[in-house]
């Protein structure tokens, strides 16, 4: 399984409001009084896929390994209602652009090579402009080898590719079924728009604007018997990432969850049967921002670390937990820069 880190924020919390008041007074009186730093409350969602050392406490910093690849869930809002969603819209807060950039710079300085922006739906906030500016910053200013996005595709316009496509290496579109009725049952739909037709349109834009195209699919009760071979081969993504539907307490399972995903979960045998039927697909890959905090999902829930904006990357990542062998086994390291893929556009 992947371990997630969370960069999020709590809107109008007493701690945050108190901090804003303190910061205002501090700026006015800085020339007279000695300033005392007060830690701020910051959230956001990052999933680190880089190995780290075990244990807790300040003495573990020297054992921390590089956060090579990071998933940054900077928003929880989404225009779809997928029944199995593990990152639901519990808050509408999005970290300000300057703070998000500062966190990304801290990660790059700690060794991050790949950043993946996700959500929620990342194109929903500011009609994709916020996302585009982050993509541009990571490629042009931080010069990261790989910048990627995971999206449901419903909000993407061609003009976004025209403005930011050069700085994007990979665009992954989530598609769980090639049958529209199935997509409707899952909740991966918006009105009567065709998710599948939109998928083909975005695939063509990716080819036109030289962005590597990828597909993510969550295998669940409603699509486990579907044969997707022909459709995947026709779309020809650089990777087809297949997930098994899992439960995360407080997100898609439990009393405080906004989703009830129990009805979407399939057995291990059914998942293996699906993989066997699709084993001929060469690009198949199997996978068992808000306050800028790492999330530890080892206990079936998301336990946040302190914010990297307050304590730095090394101290925060000590609490995230990571299985290096599993990271390498599932192909966590791969060719992720479009310049190195040598694709024929």
Automatic annotation (TrEMBL):
GO MF, one annotated term: catalytic activity
SUPFAM superfamilies the record matches: Radical SAM enzymes (SSF102114)
Source domain of life: Eukaryota
Principal subcellular localization: endoplasmic reticulum
Cofactor: [4Fe-4S] cluster
GO biological process: defense response to virus; innate immune response; positive regulation of immune response
Membrane topology recorded in Swiss-Prot or TrEMBL: Peripheral membrane protein
Protein known as: S-adenosylmethionine-dependent nucleotide dehydratase RSAD2
The gene coding this protein: rsad2
């Amino acid at each position: 399984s992947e371990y997630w880190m969370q960069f999020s924020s709590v809107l109008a919390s007493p701690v945050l409001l108190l901090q804003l008041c303190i910061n205002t007074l501090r700026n006015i009186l800085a020339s007279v009084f000695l300033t005392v730093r007060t830690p701020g409350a910051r959230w956001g969602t990052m999933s680190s896929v880089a190995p780290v050392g075990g244990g807790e406490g300040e003495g573990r910093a020297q054992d921390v390994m590089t956060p090579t690849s990071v998933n940054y869930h900077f928003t929880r809002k989404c225009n779809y209602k997928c029944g199995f969603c593990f990152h639901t819209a519990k808050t509408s807060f999005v970290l300000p652009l300057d703070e998000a950039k500062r966190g990304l710079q801290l990660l790059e300085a700690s060794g991050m090579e790949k950043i993946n922006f996700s959500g929620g739906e990342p194109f929903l906030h500011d009609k994709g402009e916020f996302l585009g500016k982050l993509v541009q910053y990571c490629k042009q200013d931080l010069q990261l080898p790989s910048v990627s996005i995971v999206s449901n595709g419903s909000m993407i316009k061609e003009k976004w590719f025209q403005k930011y496509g050069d700085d994007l290496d990979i665009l992954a579109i989530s598609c769980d079924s090639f049958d529209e009725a199935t997509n409707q049952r899952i909740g991966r739909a918006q009105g009567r728009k065709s998710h599948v037709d939109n998928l083909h349109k975005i695939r063509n834009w990716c080819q036109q604007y030289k962005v590597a195209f990828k597909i993510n699919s969550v295998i669940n009760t409603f699509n486990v018997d579907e044969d997707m071979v022909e459709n995947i081969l026709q779309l020809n993504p650089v990777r087809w990432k297949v997930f098994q539907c899992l439960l995360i307490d407080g997100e898609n399972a439990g009393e405080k969850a906004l989703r009830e995903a129990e009805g979407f979960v399939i057995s291990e045998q059914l998942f293996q049967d699906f993989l066997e039927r699709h084993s001929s697909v060469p690009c198949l890959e199997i996978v068992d921002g808000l306050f800028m905090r790492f999330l530890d999902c080892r206990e079936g829930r998301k336990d946040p670390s302190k914010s990297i904006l307050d304590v730095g990357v090394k101290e925060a990542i000590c609490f995230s937990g990571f299985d290096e062998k599993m990271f390498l086994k599932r192909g966590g390291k791969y060719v992720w820069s479009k310049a190195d893929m040598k694709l024929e556009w």
